[in-house]
Amino acid sequence: GENVEQHPSTLSxxxxxxxxxxxxxxxSASNYFPWYKQELxxxxxxxxxxxxxxxxxxxQRIAVTLNKTAKHFSLHITETQPEDSAVYFCAAxxxxxxxxxxxxxxxxxx
Amino acid sequence: EAGVAQSPRxxxxxxxxxxxxxxxxxxxxxTLYWYQQILGQGPKLLIQFQNNxxxxxxxxxxxxxxxxxxKGVDSTLKIQPAKLEDSAVYLCASxxTRERQTQYFGxxxxxxxx
Lengths: 110, 114
Prior knowledge:
The structure holds 2 protein chains of 2 kinds.
Chain A: E1 4-7, E2 10-14, E3 19-25, E4 32-38, E5 45-51, E6 56-59, E7 62-67, E8 72-77, E9 86-94, E10 97-100, E11 104-109
Parallel strand pairs in A: 2-11
Antiparallel strand pairs in A: 1-3, 3-8, 4-5, 4-9, 6-7, 7-8, 9-10, 9-11
Chain B: E1 5-7, E2 10-13, E3 19-24, E4 31-37, E5 44-50, E6 53-56, E7 65-68, E8 75-79, E9 88-95, E10 104-105, E11 109-113
Parallel strand pairs in B: 2-11
Antiparallel strand pairs in B: 1-3, 3-8, 4-5, 4-9, 5-6, 7-8, 9-10, 9-11
């Protein structure tokens, strides 16, 4: 079945710097790759997603890139702000279900 | 649009006791998911319903966990009897259909088994 690896597990950046989180997946048939942000004690919320027919998608300060050949995708956050601090999960759609990565705890220091 | 509702928000029980969680998905969403999220880990799918039918329950510990979605709308997840390792947040999510659709999560039920 699908396996998703996520790195790094923790990431600390200074406010205004960029943050990059990387994920790899195993099932070449996967076609849908969402990213969720989970603040402490709150529900995961979708922040951006990408489908396999595109290589990059942007939404203001957030962008996701997908390399289907290498089976990896990345989340890029530019001009980070303290409110970006949270745990970020990548996911890949395996056969009929989403498989989540183990999460990256991002801390943005003012 | 109302979001996914879950209750209770918190539950503390002793091992070997029973517990039940309730979920009401977003109106019109055919697919409902129950996830278990252990502290420090990503959500793990327990069971997936399409309307009132089970699509995937391969990771559901069926000796102690059960779930139903009788009328294709709200759902209950039960644990009987609970073990210490069941301490986790139980998240319910829904999506309009199964494939490549955004899943919207509820606030979760935080379970502590003593």
